Amino acid sequence: VFKKKPELAIEMIDELLKYELLPFRWITCDSIFGNSPEFLENLPSQVSYLADIAKNRKVWVNTQESESCRKMVERKVSVIAQDENVKWKLTKLAEGAKGPIFGFIARTRVYVGDASKSENEGWLFLRKDPKTHEIKYCLSNAPVETTLEEMIRVCVLRWPIEQSFQEGKSE
Q: For strand 26-29 and strand 48-53, is the pairing parallel, antiparallel, or unpaired?
């Protein structure tokens, strides 16, 4: 039976948790998975994700200052990244072979899907290259109390894995 990558991934994740083969709290993934609502919705509730998404992905944001008076609007994540209220922070992300790797980081709370349901609230995590100004967009279901430092740590954990995939493809 043919299955798409997100379906296969959910089955593998469920097996890992069922047999406690590899304890983990986070899943990071590329946009094939991050743009799949079925994948994100079917991840186990005890696992937080940081998923790459396309820049034209739409989410809901609160445009009011107070929680007692919410005004939700749907916006593309690329539009949110250009908003003057987004607070970019220049951050050392990792130590590379040629020295430190820096990036501008920002995040804001958003809703994916029905904005009236609290379980649809999460993070839009943004990473901007200081040289090219290219922006990477991620969604996360991490709790509101998750620190920015924790999300940065998780963000850079994918790099060595992607590097090894690239090296494997070139051999």
A: parallel
Question: H or E segment at 42?
Answer: helix 37-42
pTM for the structure as a whole:
0.86
Give residue 30's Cα distance to chain centre.
Answer: 9
Token pair recorded at residue 97: 């072979």
Alpha helix (H) residue ranges in 48-147: 77-82
Beta strand segments in 77-117, E: 89-96, 99-111
Contact 88, 105 (CB under 8 A): yes
pLDDT digits (tens, 9 = 90+) for 29-80: 999 999 999 899 888 888 999 999 999 999 999 877 666 667 889 999 999 9
Compute the distance between CA of residue 61 and CA of residue 112 in angstroms, rounded to an integer. Answer: 9
106, 89 contact by CB (below 8 A): yes
Nearest Cα to Cα of residue 59 among 78, 86, 40, 42:
78
Distances in Å between the Cα of 43 and the Cα atoms of 16, 47, 124, 144, 150 are 12, 7, 18, 18, 20
DSSP code of 119?
G
